[in-house]
Amino acid sequence: MGIENISIVPEPHKQVYFPGQEVKGYVLVVCSSATRCRAVDINFSGNARVSWAEGGGEHTVRYEASEPYFNFRTNLFVPDSTGRLPAGNHVWPFKFELPLNIPSSFEGEIGYIRYCIKTTARVFLGFNKEVEVYISVNCPFDLNSSSSAQAPLEIRTSGTSCCLKGIVNILLMGERSGAAVGEPYKQVIYTSTSKSTTRTTCVKTFEKGHVARGDSLYFNDEFFIVPSVVAGLQHCKLMSLKYYLEVGLH
């Protein structure tokens, strides 16, 4: 009896949205009978949050912070003098515009950036009915705006080992320092109101065997595929992210 179902349907459905685009669709509420309802509202919000703990037991210290980007809210249904939402299917369209200077959606080990559409049917003298949908936002970074991204990647290093005589040389080269979607370690720096911490995730690893004395070992034309949605966090103050290459000789 009452409200049987409530759903949010983005239309047209998009896998990824970009800053400045419209997010639109409709809310569907199915009532099996007339229901006393104070309102049906919809809320569209974007925010970032980080939280982690250090220490243990009674010495545990928790660090956290949050950052809001926007919070839009509007009423879809306001009851008449009867105070009831009639039986049947009710459809209300919605439309929001994403702000320009917002970061990409992001899910990290101890932090996230999320964009959520939530609708609530506020039932009189009963439990509210609510549902929420998350959308993915991609804020691209213009590589043309960074001179360092166009520069060739070249790193040379030399060292010795306590077990070997002589020098070991490593050379890492790439066409450029910047990469676009479709072209390895990922490092994220999280910042609370009082402290920062870093988490590193290995995206992909290449490994080869032994190198004989006086010989060379090559990784030729190896490539990494950048994910379809790479978090652009240039507008986030709580997190910063970078991808980097690491070569290890054991």
Automatic annotation (TrEMBL):
<dbReference type="InterPro" id="IPR014756">
    <property type="entry name" value="Ig_E-set"/>
</dbReference>
<dbReference type="InterPro" id="IPR014752">
    <property type="entry name" value="Arrestin-like_C"/>
</dbReference>
<dbReference type="InterPro" id="IPR011021">
    <property type="entry name" value="Arrestin-like_N"/>
</dbReference>
<dbReference type="GO" id="GO:0005737">
    <property type="term" value="C:cytoplasm"/>
</dbReference>
<protein>
    <submittedName>
        <fullName>Arrestin domain-containing protein 17-like</fullName>
    </submittedName>
</protein>
<comment type="similarity">
    <text>Belongs to the arrestin family.</text>
</comment>
<dbReference type="InterPro" id="IPR050357">
    <property type="entry name" value="Arrestin_domain-protein"/>
</dbReference>
<dbReference type="Pfam" id="PF00339">
    <property type="entry name" value="Arrestin_N"/>
</dbReference>
<feature type="domain" description="Arrestin-like N-terminal">
    <location>
        <begin position="13"/>
        <end position="144"/>
    </location>
</feature>
<dbReference type="GO" id="GO:0015031">
    <property type="term" value="P:protein transport"/>
</dbReference>
